């Protein structure tokens, strides 16, 4: 999947656990776990906004695009 979710990294940097973040964002721990473990197929902007508020970060701190079609060498 070309979009990588780095939520676990941001959570570790902010020293916040899954249950605490789930409560702050008003999402079930199970759904937050799916997102954290890179298993989600989509995320609502409102959820992303609440996560960014809670973690005091930008969407780009959580989501990363990985180009799988190119090996990084421009020709």
Task: Give the helix/strand layout.
Blueprint: E1 3-5, H1 7-14, H2 18-25, H3 29-36, H4 45-55, H5 59-62, E2 63-65
Antiparallel strand pairs: 1-2
Helix content: 40-55%
CATH evolutionary superfamily: lambda repressor-like DNA-binding domains
**Average pLDDT reading:** 92
The low-pLDDT segments are none
CATH architecture: Orthogonal Bundle
Biggest β-sheet: strands ordered side by side in the sheet: 1-2
GO molecular function, one term: DNA binding
Pfam families: HTH_26 (PF13443)
Protein name: HTH cro/C1-type domain-containing protein
InterPro entries: Cro/C1-type_HTH, Lambda_DNA-bd_dom_sf
Kindly describe this structure.
It is globular, with a radius of gyration of 13 Å. It has a two-stranded antiparallel sheet. 13% of the residues are buried. 52% of the residues lie in helices and 8% in strands. With 75 residues, it is mainly alpha-helical. The model has no long low-confidence stretch (mean pLDDT 92). It has one domain: 434 Repressor (Amino-terminal Domain), CATH 1.10.260.
